[in-house]
Every structure is written in C-alpha cells, then in structure tokens.
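We keep the chain:
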Amino acid sequence: MMGLLQRYTKIMKMVVVFALHLFADTLADNVDDLCPSADMTSGKLVTSHLSVHGVENVLPLCGMQYIVPVMATLYQGMLAASQQQGSNFMFTTSVHPTDGHKIESINNVYSVDPFEWVLFDYTTKMPSKEGVDFIEVTSESAYLWQYVNTSAGYDLNYTGPCGGPSTIAFLTVSSENTNDAFEQVCSRPILIQATGPTAFTLLQDAHDQLPIYVKAVLDMQMNTVTEINGVPNVKGKAWTGYYAGSNMMIPNDLAMTNVSNGDHVVFRYEEVDGENDPVNVGAPSAGQRSILLYAVMLLTTVMPLILINLISLFCQIIISLPKATTQLMMGLLQLYTKMVVVFALLFADTLADNVDNLCPSADMTSGMGDVQLVNSYLSVDGVENVLQLCGMQYMVPVKATLYQGMLAASQQQGSNFMFTISPVDPTYGHFIESINNVPSNDPFYWMLFENATKMSSLVGVDFIDITSESAYLWQYVNTSAGHDSNYTGPCGGPTVIAPTMPLLYNVAFLTFSSENTNNSFEQVCNRPVLIQATGTTAFDLLQDANDQLPIYVKAVLDMQMNTVTEINGVSNVNGKAWTGYYAGSNMMIPNDLAMTNVSNGDHVVFRYEEVDGENEEVDGENEEVDGENEEVDGENEEVDGENDPVNVGAPSAGQHIILLYAVMLLTTVMPLI
C-alpha cells in the first residue's frame, strides 16, 4: 500500500512540474513581449541644448536650453525646443520615407543650393552622419545647426562662435530701502552666453527669461539700469550692482563688467553721491550748449533793448527830463549795447568754433553691440593661366577702409584671397606686396581698380571708405606703359563667390576728440576697428587701430605700462594727458588700458584733459596719469570733405548758433543801431 502511495505521489509531482513548465513558458512569452520594467516607470525628463549659427550679420543663438523626455529623438527634441524657445527657434521640414525628416529652414532662413543647414555634434565639432530621426537625445547633449556653403563638401569642422550649452549666472534684487510693495528677486538662475556676457546683458537676459520676476528698464546708450520692478532711480538714490557676498561695486556702466559661469550679481537701491548719481552722468550735449548760448544771446542783445526802452519811458514820462538829456542817455546806452553785441558775437563765434571742431554728436554715443555690416566685393585678376576670382563677397562694418575690408575678406574667403603688405608708409599707408602668393616684380605690380568706373584708383587702400555693395578689383599689371590704364579683364559682372564663413572679427569704434587741442590736431570720429572676438583690451584696440588705420591713428604706446603717451602728435605733458572713456558717458577707463576689456560694438573715446598732481606721475620721458581727467594737443592733418566733421550731415550746433544769432541781430539790434 505504501509503495502504491509513493508511486502515485511521484506521478503527481511529475504532472505538476510539467504543468508548471507549460505555464512558465507561456508566462515568460507574455512577459518577454512587454517593455523592461525600467521603462514602465514614470517618464524621465532631461536637459538638452541646441545652437543656431545662421546667415551673416545675424546674431548666433548659442546653447538654447530645453527639456525633453529620455529616449526622444533629436527631431522630437527640436519640436520641444521650438515650443519652449518660441521665436528663438522655428523650423520647417520635409519627410523622406527612408531618411526621415530633412530640415528645410530654420528661423525663416531656407536652404538654397549650395547653402544648407548642416548639423554638428557639439562634442566632436564634426557634422553628424545621421539624421535627426536616428539620434536619441541624452542628458546635457548639445547639437549645433550652421548655415554652410556646401560647395566644398560636408567634411568640415564647426568653427563658429557657439561652443555648447549656455552658462548660468545668478541674480538678486534686494528689497532693502524700497517700499513694501516691491517684489525682490532672490538668487534666480539666468542662462547666459558662454562668452562675452556682461552685467548689462545679464539684466537683459533676466528681463527676457523671467518677465514675471524681473522688470528692468535699461538705458541702451549708457548701458545703465534706470528702474527695477517699478522703483526708478531718483535724485540721490539709484540701483547699484555688487558681487554677492562682497562690497565690490560694479561700475555704473554695466557693460564694463564681465559675468562668468556661477557669478552672482546683487542690485541694491542705495543713496549715491553727486559723482555717482546716474541723474548727473554725462557732459553737456551740443543741444544743451546751444540753449546756454541762446540764453547768453538773449541777455546780451534783446534784454538791453528792453531796458533801453523802459529807461527812455521812465525819463520822458515820470522824471520829465529835458529832451537833450534824454537823448544823451539814450546814446550812451546804445553805445553800450553795441559794445555788448560785438562782445557777444565774438563769444558766440568762439563757442560755435569749439562746437563745430568736435566730432558730430551722433558719433559720440555708445553703440553697445550695434555693429552695422554691409556687403562688399573684391576681385583678383592675376597672372596668365590662373583662374580669375571675380566678385568675392564679404561682410565689413560701415565706414571701414578698404584695407580693413581686405582683412575681413581674407578671413571670410580663406585661401581664395590672401595678401601681404610692405612696411607701412606714414604718408601713403599700406602698400600691397603680393596677392595669393603672387608678388609684385618690377615692372609687374598689383593695381587697384574701381569696379564702377573700371579706372585705376587714384588713392591707396587706407583712403577708401567702403560703402554698401561697393566693389574693387586687383589686377596684376605690366606698368612699363604707365599707370593710367582702364581695367579690361573678365571681372566686373554679376558673378558672386559666396564667403566660406561669416565675419569672425568683432568690431569696436574709436574716437579721438579734438577738444582742448590746437587747430592742427587731426581728430578721429567713430572709426571702426576690427578686433579679436575674445580677450581684446583698450590697449589692444589702440594697437589694432595703429595697424589698420595708419593714416588716421598714430598712437604712441608704452608697452610696459600699457598706457598711451601720445596721439596724433599730441603728447602727454605735465598737467595734461590722454584719458579714455566709454562714449556717451563720463565712465573713465583706467590709465592701464590692459585692464579694460573691449567687446563687440563698444565705442571708446580718448580726450585730452587736465590732470591734477595726485593723478599724474612723471618718470623720465614717460608720464602716467590714472585718469580723472585728461586731454592733449597736437598736430593735425587735413581731412577730406567726407571725413571733415564740419561737413558731416546737417548744419552743426555751432552753425545753427551763428545763423540764429545773425537773425536776432538783423531783426532786433541792427534796426535800432
């Protein structure tokens, strides 16, 4: 009996095991068809970044941050970025059944052969070998879209200004000294560009990114903040920036202070003295001078006439003086009036001359980031059996010289256009030695022609200011028959060779004021200077200006002290020296010019001013001033009509004053005289 029971139990175990195997296989098949348990949890979001480096003269958008689910394709990431970034990132596509989505346009810029939108991997800087549907977005991944001339093929590295995700700075706006309704901001993170951000752009970015929390009113010319969250600067009180955790104050011109990754900037509403009161910033403008002079003219011309008539009435009616006595008194008063009129006219003429000799007021304002670029073209018609390069397109700032245009063209056209120069002549400027490795070899020289006239240029590359759509031609010419020849080569038509890359130079502007100098000083008004995109200082700016503008800029620099000792023949002397300022403000640049960074669009003005003993050091031949006030006198060279500030634009303030004064004399004083 026990044996049967054991055999039955054994058989039942086998049946159960077999049934369990069948059930387990079925269950396993069902489980295998499901997603892994790790994928069944709540969806995880990650941060990713996109950059767009588009057409020339359009600001690149570097490191646009967006949130996207794990395992999303880059195409889905672009949809998410478009939704989260709004007008910063818009795109259109076409769909291919095998290759997936193809990007047709980004931010309304369409692919037009040979220019196409090319995708780059931020890590490798190489173009992606896969389309947007084959790339899965991972945490902190970054991709770049660049508008590329693909005629040379796709196998090229990304070399543009975008380098990856935006960095982060922090902003606090303290409620101290404000009213109870003020909404403070406490250590809010702000996405900023990886390179070049300032305290001014930090407020701009905060205003754009946090419109609910940050409402900053900014002065775009002075680079200052005039109001935060409804609390404006008033006489004696203003918003002042500090580095968090310190009493290190940020200059009133916020564009002077760079902001780096992790920096924390705090703005406090504080009492300010007269010098730092933003209400008092800025020297009197030409308009203010005109109003002042107009008041002087009224006091010295019209008012004496009114006084004469009142005295005459008083004498005749009230005192009843004899007619002869009254006439004598009137004669004396009229003589006095004539003397005052002559004095006032001389004063007005002198003041008007001083106003006219200064740069136009439009050239004296700061243009932070405001760099206007224009299209220009160069052609090279070289030696026989060498392909001509006709209509090489490049971008260059307005008012740049042709030499600066050639620097810009060389950078943007690469191997299409290379040149060397001989040592610079102080009178004639740059002389072109070779173009595209073909040197001048007597009697063959490189000659410059103007495309519009096909005539050889009468002036050198430093005397020509580039205008929009201007075009010039270089031809390798046998000059044995003389220089007076017309261009007869194949270049000059509508052919255009597009640039291989955008303008990578930044542009700053330079002014040398003639104020306090003598009549022969050659001033420089708002001249553009090509500078390196990063690391340029005010000292570098003067060096670059010396190299690029030898006809206009002759600055003598102390390479050890990083100071300027002479500009255009006017030297620092005991009690007077050159001092740098940001245009449109009284924000002084330190005497050590290497301490001040210069960014794209900055405008630096040098003035010759008196300096007190505390601010001046004289050591042998060199003088150094720390720069409370400085300006110098010197030599001047003649300027042509276009560059003469007296001839620029509408009548100047001084000319208006002379005209107004003449009208007043003719209509009031002269009839009485």
